[in-house]
Amino acid sequence: KEYDAGSSYPLPRKLGKYYYVKVRTNPDKPAQLYYMDKPDGMPQPLPDPLEDYDAKAYLASYYPSDNTKWLAFAISPEGGDRQEVRLLDMEKKKFSKEVLTGLRPGVKWNKDNGLFYKQNTNKTTFAADSTFQLRYHALGTKQEDDRVIFDSSASKTHFTFGVNGDYLFITEKINSGANKNYYYLHTDSLSNAPVKFISNAAADFDFKFYFKGRFYYATQQYDWGEVRSRNLDGSDEKVVIPQFYNQLLMSTLMFGDYVVCKYKTPGKYHLSVYDKDINFIRKYDLPPGHDCTIYFYNSDTNCMYMTISSYTLAAQNYTLNLETGEFKPFFSQVYKAKPTLFPLDYFESKTITYKSRDGKDVPITIVHKKGLVMDGNNPTLLKAYGGFGVVSTPVYDTGLLYFLEQGGVFAFAEVRGGGEKGLKWHAAGRGKNKVNSINDVVDAAEFLIAEKYTSSAKLAFSGVSHGGMLATGAMVQKPELFRVVLSEMGVTDLPTAMQQTVGSYHKDEFGDTEVKEDYAAMLAYSPYQNVKEDVNYPVTLLITGENDDRLPPYQSYKFAARLQNRPAQKNPVYLKTIAKAGHGGSVNYKANT
């Protein structure tokens, strides 16, 4: 329990002039927000925005205004994605009487003057999402008078937004998510309509940032990722960071006069640092099997603050001086580092590939205790995500650590549909190809059994959200491979899910139920529709959140009922519903279940 929060003081977030960190002082209540004026300063508590809410509410996020005059608290009253915003005067440490309601996650400030937000007008929790308006709230005014900046009610298209410098940028998905439109609006001219400056861009066109009159982005032309720039009027396009084959560009961040790119290669990550003119400075290789999370940049010291962790090593804090290249551990004066639980060579981690049924090389990372004998008798946990082009990275977990110490084997398969091998890897598990994601999970299970890591009597698969669909999809395809299957907040009935909450925004990932070919492809792998009457499926645990308005809980309810109400089902099927929780589960340690 002591190590669940990591082995050293968690790095704060630097937003504006202050550093912020959440601190849990009462195990029965969610963490409270604290702030500091320097990274290793003494945290000071901020007024608790949850005092007027019951125990099911939690602080979802927080957003300081440009000069940190105000701090906006985004609160989830019911545990789901529908939020309220309260405003704290940072000088007086008092809350304004203004409370914004019915918001979707993510608000952006217009300097210190007001907030941009997406308005949700759903009448019921699990109705099809109705977030089609971007609004602007000027401080000191009534919410019902807020200006509508962008409205997609007629087309019912999904959009995202952000503020960069003096500009508001809007990204609109069109053609069922296959293309994008981009708009900009100067924040001093909010009475004007947003200007469309890119039309019908491909879905994988990726906006990075705006800097000194230039728009930085990546296209789908290069599979492994690159960065280009151009003026807002579309002129003077340049490739500023080219593609590096077999090196996946995961992120591009601008810090002062520096640009930092994070790359992934099989089993390894590295950082490349450039100056503001995109001249290469240096490269930093992370230890094999370890990932890093970049938290913030301190312009006073030219240091970037980051953590390094792996499946078996808790987050360790470091600073990287972008000017001198000095790389060293960072310790807080308040929270001292604790020793690691095991020697650094106690566990082994390797990333190899296995062959899919159609001959593709699928990466898989396997972790176990050093010297463990592979005789087919090891309890093994297989995981995968495989959707939306997400690049999965190592995640430290003390439960997993205990499992490994007891002689378990952990495997994570980078199946198609994820982004671990570039844009084509995502496309190979998207839309009509979605079944490849499930097939790759089944093939991973067969590989682990064939190579004597485990046996079908001792193999479990666990998946969350999209991974939950892989879990239930794999078990209905090849139930004899698994002893236990766990699906957490998963989608099981694809056609129905596409009609509820945010499902209509995922046509580019799963297909369109109104298109015959897409619907037929969906039915071929959708777990609920493929349960057979005469099969005894593995021991199954389905976990869902009572107020999950991303993947409604009935998805798990229906699948549990479908499995349980068959004479052939002899293995137990369990359903766990987390009360007052959304898609991320409960934030209260003592939530009712």
Structure description:
The chain is mostly beta strands and about 600 residues long. Helix content is about 10%, strand content about 35%. The strands form eight sheets. It has an eight-stranded mixed beta sheet with strand order 29-30-32-31-33-34-35-36, sandwiched between helices. Helix 8 (about 555-565) links the parallel strand 35 and strand 36. Helix 3 crosses helix 4. The longest helix is centred in the C-terminal third of the chain and has 16 residues, at about 435-450. It starts with 12 loop residues before the first strand and ends in a 15-residue tail after the last strand. Mean pLDDT is about 90; it is low at about 590-593.
- Main sheet summary: 8 strands, mixed
Q: Give the end-to-end Cα distance, rounded to a whole number of Å.
A: 20 Å
Averaged pLDDT: 89
| Rg over C-alpha atoms, rounded to the nearest angstrom | 24 Å
Q: Can you give the helix content as a percent range? A: 10-25%
> Which word captures the global form?
globular
Supply database-style keywords.
globular; eight-stranded mixed beta sheet; 593 residues
Topology (elements, then pairings):
Blueprint: E1 13-15, E2 18-23, E3 32-36, E4 44-45, E5 58-64, E6 70-76, E7 83-89, E8 94-103, E9 108-110, E10 114-119, E11 133-138, E12 147-151, E13 159-164, E14 167-174, E15 179-186, E16 195-202, E17 206-211, E18 214-218, E19 227-231, E20 238-241, E21 248-255, E22 258-265, E23 268-275, E24 280-285, E25 291-298, E26 303-309, E27 316-321, E28 327-329, E29 347-355, E30 361-369, E31 380-383, H1 398-405, E32 409-413, H2 423-427, H3 435-450, E33 459-464, H4 466-477, E34 484-488, H5 494-497, H6 507-510, H7 516-525, E35 539-545, H8 554-564, E36 573-578
Parallel strand pairs: 31-32, 31-33, 33-34, 34-35, 35-36
Antiparallel strand pairs: 1-2, 2-3, 3-4, 5-6, 6-7, 7-8, 9-10, 10-11, 11-12, 13-14, 14-15, 15-16, 17-18, 18-19, 19-20, 21-22, 22-23, 23-24, 25-26, 26-27, 27-28, 29-30, 30-32
